[in-house]
Write a structure and sequence with these properties.
With about 375 residues, this protein is α+β, with helices and mostly antiparallel strands. The chain has one domain. Helix content is about 20%, strand content about 25%. The longest helix has 19 residues, at about 365-380.
Amino acid sequence: MFLWLTQDVNGKPRFLSFDTPYDLLGISDREHLMPRLGKTDNAKSMDEYLQAGTEGILVDQDGRAVYYSQYINPEFVEFMQSNGLTDYKNVQNFDPYTPFDINVAEFKASWKIVQPGEDTSGFYTMESSVYALKNSGGKIVVDEDKSLTVTLALVGFHIAGVVKDHPEMIWATFEHKDNAPNVPTDFSPSTIISDKDWTFYQANTPFSQCNINPANSPSLTLNEQDQTLSPVTQVCRQYEDGNYARQVTLDVPTNIKVVNQLNQSVLDQLNKDDVWSNYFEVSAIWFSRKNGLQPNMGLASDVDSSDQQLLIGGLRLSNSTIETFTQSQSTMNNCFRCHNTLQRFPPSPNMDPLPGMNLNISHAFMNIYFWDQEMKNAKKAN
């Protein structure tokens, strides 16, 4: 699907022609990209992860924040509109066992700001507006009154889509090959992960200094004038191929082999000068059984309540540019730790929670539910 999504359509990759979750609600003032913030233990709207704060902003080697965008395919749009699910009241009365239709999919991209004179010949790049950052109340927050026109380079890409018998979606992630080095199987805090520079890693940085989250720390500072942050984040990929390499159960060796074969097969079909040949699939994760999704599933472990294996594929799947700070946290170390069907609580007390339902597997769906309430509450207040 990655190759199909990146095929040229009217001069740009196909996925850039898709709607965003904002489009479904007619929101026009959130079109700028926003930095990724760290995940929290609370089940809240992903809008908070993308909004103001100092939680886990990924800072590249030039001191700039990494930015993110989200897209939904036409099948997602059709499902939401035909069922009236852009209205939060309809969601509350919707059958919680109903899954998304086959072929519904959502996507998330991560982008690095390109510096003057930087060689981006191996990246897909585009011009875009992004929100600036500012210091406010002792915190670094998004400045929604100031936008910047920049060139962005694509560094990461999430794909989540429904296929036959798998309403939980197949979750796959892709990265640029130069993003970050892989952590070796045998390592200690002092282990040097790589002796060369990567896009998000400085040569000879030890593991103890990688993937450090300065969230809410006074050590994280912003120069508003040049929009640079400090300290820089040194990134390494905790689990190559999205799995612990020494695990010999749960078909992990087979999954690693298949992913590597798939990447090589795709590479063999692309021209070496094709920019998309520089991106690879880390892995994918899904349920081991058919039609296993149910409302109110926490998915906090790889097994079900009967201790039977539920998840299969990349059991430690993370994208080094999207889940930088949670790769080794057992409560957040694969897609389903955050994408589940539990009840979701609102970001403010004057809003209704989202009932536990199968559709909650999608953060785009969750965002739309809370954003609709926010807009209607704001309209009432005015």
